[in-house]
């Protein structure tokens, strides 16, 4: 898919407002749920979340959630198409304001729509402060260049747009909400406005002139052709690539890539947690670092989607002198579905997975229990003893944000870059269940994890040295250049 879709980091989708169907629509409805089936699935969703979610009412009271579910139920007035119902389910999940509580179903519906030749409005954007700026060309004219500041979409002010998005996208904070909007705005616009031939956009160009235009919807192939014909200059960097190299002035650069096995690294029958190739990469990187005589190590986690701590531990353990733990507090809820998922897993009592498995097996159904995390021992081979710097941005997600918080709290590294949108104290370690009638897959967090410092502030990792993201249309990696300048300046 194009850059517009490849940047999707999660299944956080907007939903349409109406769910009822007219008599004519009901007669023509295919692949629908009856009103009874849909309401039963909503009841099942709510009951299961209360038993499985580690803290469903962390940010919404039970009374508020009761009222929300009742409102959604009342909106089902007859047979409802599954894609419409899937969006309704996502609205119920987004109401809790917890990013790891969501459904995969709506994004599947949207992708199927696109693959069948459906059109979407090709707006690719980034946020700079409170401003939404276009990042790519939206059509073949020069009227709305990249870097234009959008002020209205589909007749809504930006405040109205974000208020609506906040109701519909599962996100813990406004910053995480905006990060999700950045990832796939065309998808969200389709879910908010439905299939449209064009969408009205008002914007301000670089000279301060206010303009408006209709942005025509395009097929996937048309969007791909547009981006290829009108490329926007940007740094030649891929966050998914594993890079280890010497840099001038005794600085070593390490971009570990995702903390899971890439498709190329998985052997026959192996999945995301096939760690062999990553382990070899890290071993060679630290051996090369030792040979180089580097005084400073810069670890680049910008755009890192995260993954599993067993991968990142191979790096962190070479930077510490004492054993460490990832969290100051780790609690799980042993719901019936979670117990069923874990009942056949092998348990190694010395690992986090083993401790989680043991706790789930012995806890009562629905009980929330605390787990003492295992200590991770230092790795002496080619351990690095110089200064460590970590570069992050708003799209350093999941375990990448946790690693940044860990290294900050343990005073292992100095953090540079943008505040992360994802949270280091978070509800995570997700599991899944499916609704009985629609079959929608529901993702829920079974664990609550508190960063090593013990802070429960609902906020991302805040760098000691803030660095602005790259300007739109800039080929040089100015974030990296600024980080390197800071490292050199700190030696004086």
TrEMBL record:
Pfam families: Peptidase_S41
Statement: the UniProt record of this protein carries the keyword Electron transport: no
Record-annotated Tail specific protease domain positions: 280-465
Domain of life: Bacteria
InterPro entries: ClpP/crotonase-like_dom_sf, Tail-specific_protease
Signal peptide residue numbers: 1-23
Keyword field: Signal
Protein name in UniProt: Tail specific protease domain-containing protein
């Amino acid at each position: 898919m194009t850059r517009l879709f490849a940047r999707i980091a999660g299944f956080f989708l907007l939903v349409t407002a109406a769910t009822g169907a007219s008599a004519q629509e009901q007669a023509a409805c295919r692949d629908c749920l009856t009103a009874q089936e849909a309401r039963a699935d909503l009841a099942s969703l709510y009951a299961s979340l209360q038993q499985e979610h580690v803290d469903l009412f962390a940010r919404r009271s039970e009374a508020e959630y009761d009222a929300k579910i009742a409102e959604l139920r009342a909106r089902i007035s007859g047979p409802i198409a599954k894609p419409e119902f899937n969006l309704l389910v996502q609205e119920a999940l987004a109401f809790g304001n917890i990013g790891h509580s969501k459904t995969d179903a709506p994004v599947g519906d949207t992708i199927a729509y696109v693959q069948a030749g459906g059109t979407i409005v090709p707006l690719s954007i980034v946020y700079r402060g409170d401003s939404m700026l276009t990042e790519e060309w939206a059509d073949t004219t020069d009227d709305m260049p990249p870097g234009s500041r959008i002020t209205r979409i589909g007749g809504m002010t930006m405040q109205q747009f974000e208020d609506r998005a906040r109701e519909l996208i599962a996100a813990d904070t406004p910053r995480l909400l905006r990060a999700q909007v950045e990832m796939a705005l065309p998808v969200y616009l389709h879910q908010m406005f439905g299939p449209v031939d064009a969408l009205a956009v008002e914007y301000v160009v670089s000279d301060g002139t206010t303009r408006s235009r209709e942005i025509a919807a395009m097929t996937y192939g048309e969007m791909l052709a547009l981006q290829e014909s009108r490329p926007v200059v940007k740094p030649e960097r891929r966050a998914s690539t594993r890079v280890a190299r010497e840099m001038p002035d005794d600085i070593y650069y390490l971009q570990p890539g995702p903390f899971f096995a890439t498709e190329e690294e998985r052997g026959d029958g192996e999945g995301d947690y096939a760690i062999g190739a990553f382990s070899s990469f890290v071993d060679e990187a630290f051996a090369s670092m030792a040979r180089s005589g580097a005084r400073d190590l810069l670890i680049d986690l910008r755009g890192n989607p995260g993954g599993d701590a067993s991968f990142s531990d191979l790096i962190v353990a070479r930077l510490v002198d004492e054993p460490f733990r990832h969290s100051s507090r780790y609690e799980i809820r042993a719901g019936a579905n979670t117990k069923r998922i874990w009942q056949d897993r092998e348990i190694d009592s010395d690992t986090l997975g083993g401790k989680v498995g043991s706790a789930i097996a012995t806890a009562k159904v629905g009980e929330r229990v605390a787990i003492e995390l295992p200590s991770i021992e230092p790795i002496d081979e080619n351990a690095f003893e110089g200064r460590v710097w970590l570069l992050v941005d708003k799209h350093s997600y999941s375990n990448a944000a946790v690693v940044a918080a860990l290294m900050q709290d343990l005073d292992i590294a100095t953090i540079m870059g943008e505040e992360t949108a994802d949270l280091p104290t978070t509800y995570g370690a997700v599991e899944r269940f499916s609704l009985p009638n629609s079959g929608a897959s529901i993702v829920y967090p079974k664990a609550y994890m508190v960063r090593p410092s013990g802070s429960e502030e609902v906020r991302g990792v805040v760098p000691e040295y803030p660095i602005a993201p790259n300007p739109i249309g800039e080929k040089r990696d100015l974030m990296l250049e600024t980080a390197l300048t800071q490292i050199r300046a700190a030696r004086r």
